[in-house]
Amino acid sequence: MGSPINITSKEQFNNLLSSSTFVVADFHAQWCGPCHAIAPVYEQLSAQLSRPNRIAFTKIDVDQQQEIAKAYGVTAYVSVEQSTYKWVTASFKDVKANPARMPTFIVFERGRPTNTIRGADPSKLNQVIRKLATEASKSEASGGSAEGSSSGATWIGAATPKGYSDITEEYDVKGLELLNRDSDFGTARTLLEPSKPSALGNGKGKDGGSDWVESDTDEQLMLFIPFKSTLKVHSLQITSLPPSEGEDDEVPMRPKTIHLYTNRSHVLGFDEADDIPPVQAVTLEAGDWDPKTGTAKIDLRFVKFQSVFSLNIFVVDGDGDGEKTRVDRIRIFGEAGEKREMGKLEKIGDDQGE
């Protein structure tokens, strides 16, 4: 139990997102009257409900931590007298017509924003946070961990890297593509689902279907992921849970060689990918797969993944002599940046290669 934590840097906030299951962020400003009015309510909730490594309450001054506020789309409409503040992007007419959007409260679960409250609404804030505390208690009682729980939280197959968060949800579903998938199994979207894989004992897949992907004519897969914002990608987690020998007539393989390409305008064809040097090539060995969750962590050359607006993940081959490759989940970790104007992606030249 304690007072809200004043955030003084992006690194401090990212570390907190990694170390606490739930984080509540109060985006406020010194000049904001409603922020001061609701502060005692927020501080009381923090004193009653905060728990080390479970629920953390934070306060973020939008003028002092502009990069954090911008990353999560926090802006403010203030009075005309305050309109010289750089946070005001509306015209004078818009400022008069719109109610205050400060403070803004954002609830994070395992590093991902899950709920937003704009404005000083004590009743709604109290309702959302107490519901959050109830969910946290249920998760704690059931032994919730990185492997997931029954509370509906986003499943992650391994620990979140320190200082970063799960940014998988930043993908643009409209442009998502997956080449050479077997239509009897899941789609590209299946790979980015937040749910725990059914192979780990979570029941049937969505709508009774298979909640994993298998390749079709050979072991290769090509996944194209466009993003809604420009990302800094730190690492990937790939989960593959093929059945044991004898459980299936044709046991699929786990991925072995993976090539990564950034900032392409479209999904790469297999022949096209063979002619382009990857930004990074990865070889996964048997020991890289966690025996409990079937997840392998891929650390990226961070300097080459600083401004990523699309990612091609090419599974070149599988680990074994089979004809098919299986992937259950993919998670992306790093930092989300400014929202990108959706439209045609600009193709970056081959200077992105190795």
What does this structure look like?
With 354 residues, the protein is α+β, with helices and mostly antiparallel strands. The chain folds into two domains: 5-141, Glutaredoxin; 165-352, Jelly Rolls. It contains seven helices and 15 strands. The chain has helices spanning 10-19, 33-49, 66-71, 92-97, 122-141, 188-191, 270-274; strands at 5-6, 22-28, 55-61, 104-109, 112-118, 165-166, 177-179, 213-214, 221-239, 255-262, 280-283, 295-299, 308-318, 326-327, 329-339. Strands 6, 7, 9, 10, 11, 12, 13 and 15 form an eight-stranded antiparallel β-sheet that branches. It has a five-stranded mixed β-sheet with strand order 1-3-2-4-5. Strand 4 and strand 5 (112-118) form a beta hairpin. Helix 2 (33-49) runs parallel beside helix 5 (122-141). The N and C termini lie far apart (49 Å). The model is unreliable at 77-100, 141-152, 203-208 and 340-354 (pLDDT under 50).
Secondary-structure map:
Blueprint: E1 5-6, H1 10-19, E2 22-28, H2 33-49, E3 55-61, H3 66-71, H4 92-97, E4 104-109, E5 112-118, H5 122-141, E6 165-166, E7 177-179, H6 188-191, E8 213-214, E9 221-239, E10 255-262, H7 270-274, E11 280-283, E12 295-299, E13 308-318, E14 326-327, E15 329-339
Parallel strand pairs: 1-3, 2-3
Antiparallel strand pairs: 2-4, 4-5, 6-15, 7-9, 8-14, 9-12, 9-13, 9-15, 10-11, 10-13
